[in-house]
Design a protein that fits this description.
The protein is mostly helical and 277 residues long. 71% of the residues lie in helices and 5% in strands. The longest helix has 55 residues, at 46-100. It starts with 9 loop residues before the first helix and ends in a 5-residue tail after the last helix. Its main location: secreted. This is Flagellin.
Amino acid sequence: MPLNSVNTNVGAMVALQSLNKTSDELSATQKRISTGYRVSDAKDDGAAFAVAERVRGEMAGTTSANEQLGGVKGLIDVTNAALENVSTTLQTLKTIVVKLADATITDDQKTQYQTQVKELTNNIKAFIDDASYNGKNILDGSTSGTNTVVRNGQGVTYSFSSYAALDNIYNQVSSANTWSASSAAAALSASGVVTDAITNTLTQLNNFGSYSNYIDSQINYNKAKIDAQESGIGALVDADLAKESAKLQSLQIRQQLGTQALSIANQAPQTLLSLFR
């Protein structure tokens, strides 16, 4: 049975509770629309927010690792470029040494060939000396042993070796301009220094090519992993804006109706005054 009282307005109380609930839902919807997130802080969904923050940390770590790998990629690519030029120069050097091995050439020809050989060996040294990236050179012997770089967000490292190209390539042929015909012939033999220098260069081209391929693969994998993690976070915390837009309109209408209902309920005690007229 309805209670006709000016002290207790049940209708107004119900209308006010409904209006407050609608206002809370409207605030939450507006927050999702303005931020784009269903879960923008721990108050929205503590568990989901914690998972999202952990994954964001992993993504940040992987992104940082990719930046480091990018630097190493530059170093290895520069090293490969130097070795490729050394290899080409050694092939040219070999053709001139073949001519020096001919004991029938004239002294004038020999002098000309020795001049060419000296320029070629100088080029080889220059290629090795200039193979630096960001102040680091892994061919000139200044960096020895194993180099390591962080390859993922967990701090796992990848290792690759430096190579003393000055000792094992340039020094093999540095005195080629002084070789006699017999020395030149010996240098061209299967165990000769020219053959060794070429073999060493090709071996290192293979090694550094493998290093470069690994770095490229790791960078691409890290990018794919970051994309997958970002997609997972999106499914977890992103708001469905189309749904929220429709809900916003519904809540705005409910808010207007709730305001009107509260206004009507607040007017109910006024009708009791007519009983006393």
